[in-house]
Amino acid sequence: MLAPSAVAAQQFHLTVDNIMRGPALFGTAPSNVRFSADGRHVYFAWRSPGVDTLDQDYRVAVTGGAPERLPRHAVDTIAMANGVWSPDLKREVVNLKGDLWLVDRTGAKRALTQTTARESNASWSADGRTIFFTRENNAWALDLSDGAIRQLTDVRTGAAPKPPTDPLGEKKYLHDQQRELFDYIRRQVAQDKLAADTDTTGRKTFYLADGQSVGELDVSPDGRFAMIAVSDRATGTQATMPVWVTQSGFVETRQLRTKVGDDQGKTRAGVIELATGKITWVDSLAGVTAGPRTTDPVAISFNGKHALFRVSTTNYKDEWLVVVDLPSLALRSVAHRHDDAWLGELGFLGQGSYVGWLGDGETIYYGSEETGYAHLYTVSAAGGTPKALTSGQWEVQDAELSPDKKTFWLATNEGDWGQAHFWTMAVAGGARTRVTSAEGRQDVTVSPDGRTLAVLASTSNHPAELFFQPSAAGAAPQQVTESTTPEWRSYNWTKPEIVSVPASDGAQVPARLYRPIGVPSNHAAVIFVHGAGYLQNVHKWWSDYAREYMFDHLLASKGYTVLDLDYRGSAGHGRDWRAAIYRHMGGRDLDDQVDGARWLVKTMGIDSTRIGIFGGSYGGFITLMAMFTKPGVFAAGAALRPVTDWAHYNHPYTARILNQPQDDTTAYQQSSPIYFAQGLRGRLLICHGMVDDNVHFEDTARLIQRLIELGKTNWDVAVYPVERHGFVRADSWTDEYRRILKTFDETIGRVAGP
Q: How many CB atoms are closer than 10 A to CB 278?
């Protein structure tokens, strides 16, 4: 069933040039996996090795056969199972390029809208006869029997019309006299006022102010209410980035994000009564503390009796789940999450959030780190004591309700924080069933009938591939794709050894270890520091750092020992591990790197004067802190696209961990490398893309000036004029890692330069 490769097998040579070819070498894994509505095919985006240079649309029959490439932009590329199923589970409405389509289980498709405007956020009426959707900031209803479309809300852009002001003096006398004497004038005034505030149906009009937009409009199954979210654009000053290599030949500029501490805008949410247009805002209620906060809609219950909102403080420490009863519009808080540091985003590796309604329409499920690990809870819409459905020293990283609303589909690291598996559990809780069993990480899409799993599975020495597996515990998966090239597979890529490094505070820090390969140890070591954004890199699946994984093999083939730690702040190890860096990045997380260096000396026979460190983004930041604040521990370091001053980074990430710079100057100063540059010892290489729209090149430019003014000499900078945060060009990657290798070889490796 594997797809044939057009690439002739050849022996792989472990060199920087070969490694940095990236996906052209190790392939591009399938993505955007979804089933057809009839469950007979699986669709996905892919680059067949040796055939495609860009992502293409493919499909493959569940019963077998090779993947089939589809014509570009074919209707068959509709994301079949990514739609919303009708109440009877016989049809789903899906979105294709901004239009709505109706698909039934036979695979028959029908276009519902074909407009230049974009339709989104589709949902069904309780009787399955009407589809609700959002278009141009308003809610609409489409009758499936005749195709008629009705506008349900009247949200307009621009300033609301203002009633005329009363005149002064004699004009005021005449103005008032007309109203006093003539019924005709009184009626005219009343009609003008009504027309200014309502549309032709009598609904009250809502006007969006400048900088506002509607984020969501979710209509209740009975069509009587809708949840609305109105977002205010951030008013903080946006950073400007010069673009140096342009088609015009002139330097151009681009507006970027605001910086931490600047105004970030907010979201206000509420319930609209569709018949009248009246909005009830969920701004405040008993049990929700005062202070800046933002409100987001979650969902309307399946029985249409309640609307669920999330109210969050802008300091990221508190969050409430708020229920609004329909039609009474009574408000109450039913669950509260708090963290003295910052609340974790509950979802797989922090990339999402699980919260919603059970099928009874009266019970809410949500995630909480109340016990120190992310677990699944339920609470009644009427309030009361939440019930924990899972518990233990492991994480529920994602939770989804099955279409029939009887089963939870869970992604957890239960039993092994180095693996992620697919589990099922009844909505009432109780026993869980682990369905996938292969080592590594399993990302699962379930067929419409629930009988087949499409699994993206990877191990630590092979990227993710598509497999089919019956939806039964222990069932054998069948491989569908092979994305890597024969050349890449010809090399013996190892599974890194996972070890525990004793930390100075008594913790055991997980780490990947690469011992020298095929040569004696040169008694030198390199520590690689993975990036952040809440990320885990010590695990048994394919790393997001594929090039670094191969570079670690190259170092090991030259006699280096390589260590890669899940330092404090990394994902996958619970709340306390995550929050240990609160108010001091470059504190406990850096201590873990130092403890790793000491462990290498004590356990692996490494010369304490021959240890290097490198990493990108947060890893680059840690490298700078190591070279500036831990004298004598690291003889060489390579800091790639590093944050040098956290006061210049973005708000959502930084304010969670360090608060705001205007409120907590101590946290920013003790966490920013630029304040410690005078401590540089050893050799330092800094590499940065000049059009980096994440960690701006300004960070490196400011540090360069600081090092110049301090008179430091043992440092180098390489800049990449066309590269953003994540490099794209193979020649840029190659240049960068040649410089890193040269830095280590000439210092800790004791290899003389040319």
A: 14
For tokens 């097998």, name the residue. 9
The pLDDT value given to residue 577: 97
Sheet holding 452-459, edge to edge: 441-446, 452-459, 462-470, 478-479
Mean of all residue pLDDT scores within the chain: 91
Residue 99, amino acid: D
Q: Name the phi and psi angles at 323, rounded to 5.
A: -105, 135
Cα of 36 vs its chain's centroid, Å: 26
Alpha carbon distance 542, 404 (integer Å): 33
Tokens of 42: 């699986």
pLDDT per position as a tens digit, 721-737: 999 999 999 999 999 99
pLDDT confidence bin for 81, thresholds 50/70/90:
very low
Please name the residue that has the structure tokens 């990283």. Answer: 397
Q: Are strands 611-616 and 636-640 parallel, antiparallel or unpaired?
A: parallel
Q: What pLDDT score does 38 carry?
A: 85
**DSSP string computed for 145-191:** TT--EEE---EEESPPPPPPPPP-HHHHHHHHHHHHH-HHHHHHHHH
495 vs 371: CA distance, rounded Å: 33
Give the bridge partners for 269, in sequence order. 229
The dihedral formed by the CA atoms of 194, 198, 202 and 206, expressed in degrees to the nearest 10: -150
- Whether the pLDDT of residue 175 is over 50: the answer is yes
Of 155, 157, 182, 177, whose CA–CA distance to 167 is shortest? Answer: 177
Residue 44 pairs in a beta bridge with 58
Burial class (CB in 10 A: 0-12, 13-18, 19+), 404: exposed
